[in-house]
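User: Before I run my own analysis I want an independent prediction to cross-check against. Here's the chain; please return only the structure tokens and, at the end, one sentence I can use as a sanity check.
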Amino acid sequence: MRVTAKVDYALRALVELAAAGATVKGERLAEAQAIPLKFLENILAELRRAGIVGSQRGAEGGYRLQRGAADISVADVIRAVEGPLADVHGTSPEMLDPPGVAAPVREVWLATRAALRSVLEVVTVADIAAADLPPVVGSLLADPEAWVRR
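Assistant: Structure tokens:
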């Protein structure tokens, strides 16, 4: 899986908002995370359209989480700014039907998506902001080969 700058910046901005617990100006988010402001503003607009952040104009304006940080998974963030977690050249793995001996490739892509979901659907913005990652992450970090051996 390739994590784009867009996904990384979106998640980092959301963690900043969760830690602040208040409305934060885009400039402050950009500065805190060393993100180009114009790029961040585009990302925040996508997160707003997805219902993840809200915005307020004016002197007291800025961005805030629209939902609780514990209700926003990393998977939600990826879907908001990039689309589905795992597709194969724009097609859902369920819709694939490789011919002949390549038929099992479909199951490989389905398993890949399930593995991604096992982490990305569980870890929330609140977990990251609190530096308290779920056990699934800790177990993978402690022994990354264990997951492969299962």
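Sanity check: The first strand starts at residue 53 and ends at 56.
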